[in-house]
Amino acid sequence: MWNWSGSDLKLRLTLRVAIVSTLCFAVISGYFLIEADRSVRGRIAAVADVAAKTLELQQSKIQWLNNARSEFPDLDSVAASVMTPGLCLAFRSNSGEISQRFCGGSQTDTAAPPLAFAALYRRLFDPCREVVRQVVSRGNAIGEAVAWIDPAVPTAEAWHDAGRLMAVFMIALPLLCALVYAALARALRPTRQIRDGLERIAAGDLAARLPPFDLAELSAIGDVFNQLAERLAAALSDRNALTQKLILVQDEERRHLARELHDEFGQSLAAIRALAASARQTAAADCPPLLAECDGIARTATDMMETLRGALFRLRPPDVDELGLAASLEGLVAGWNGRSRGQPRFEITISGSFERLVASVSANLYRIVQEALTNAAKHAGATRVMLRLEMREAPPGGGDSAIVLAIDDDGQPGDPQGDPQLRSGLGLLGMRERVAALGGRLSFETGQPSGSSLRVIVPVAASREAAPVERAA
Description:
Layout: H1 9-65, H2 76-82, E1 87-93, E2 98-103, H3 115-125, E3 131-137, E4 140-149, H4 152-187, H5 190-202, H6 216-286, H7 291-315, H8 320-323, H9 325-340, E5 345-351, H10 359-378, E6 384-392, E7 402-409, H11 420-423, H12 428-437, E8 441-446, E9 452-459, H13 460-465
Parallel strand pairs: 5-6
Antiparallel strand pairs: 1-2, 1-4, 3-4, 6-7, 7-9, 8-9
Subcellular location: Membrane
Organism: Bradyrhizobium brasilense
GO molecular function: kinase activity
């Protein structure tokens, strides 16, 4: 059975045309066979009519001349004028006796049809049937003029005609299919452009548009496609603008929270440490048993200060403008290694110079790395995280320099669509928006059974035009 799923539309339509053409050929062949049988029947009936009229005239002549010795029936004159190959003519008396009979010879130049065709033809048309006409004299039937044809003759003629039709069909059908296929290929050629446009839209190229087509149906599809592309581009632009504003608000809140923690909570912890030191001096002179409590208060305040420094470092990164991207990332990795005590282990490799990088690019790349390391350490349960930062120079043939950022870990790959941490502003969506603001590309792949890879490519020339999303305060 033919499998229609995934087959070429042109081939499917061509096959349907071939099937319809075959059915039409079968109907036409049947019509011609019926008409041929009807023509043969009409010819036999005409011969029988002529024979009956001739015999009636002969009988009337005998009676009028009162010549009993005249021969009757005499079918020689009729047979000489109407006899054809395979045709038989006879006179049958009322008693059923055949008084005279003439039969034409069979054709010798026609090939014998196959037995199956002969059997089918005789079953459908019954060419052996006789045509009988009564011979009447003075109002009384004196016999019958009988005409029939040898069934082999019309069967052979039908097979010969069917063979010619079949030959014509075998030549015409491939030509018809080839012409239909070529016409369909030409008519459906714009579908390639539609497919290419859809692929470009799927790849993120929202500037893809379709030209007008000759066919009205395809032009309507092109118009709808262009409208959808425009609306999708507008909706995506609005979403990107909103997301970037949210990122700005988020970063501003981070800076505000870091400032509040540093000014209020930090000063309070410093005051607690100072009071603990003062209380320890007093206790050393007046109440030695309180020395342990004073030392405990001081240690607790010191631990809280360390925790506060780590939180402030995550909320407000160091000034990337002053330290540079490379030094800031090295400090970030060192901080993670210090806090994690080797589990997981963070490694960093930097190649190329980033000293002249635009400040907005440095700040956004720092945030991307910060969020990626946080996800790998806290949500993926990675034991090893590899960070590689490379300044890829422009190729000799032309093009722009690009910053390539790669982060690989061996943690359990979470579902970016299902993990709320990855979908939040601190996760993959925030990274994508930051990369989009720089005119770059981001890809995230998960391995089996574990591990994940984050790749970011930012063209340096394009990033110079990007609006800054964050400047470290």
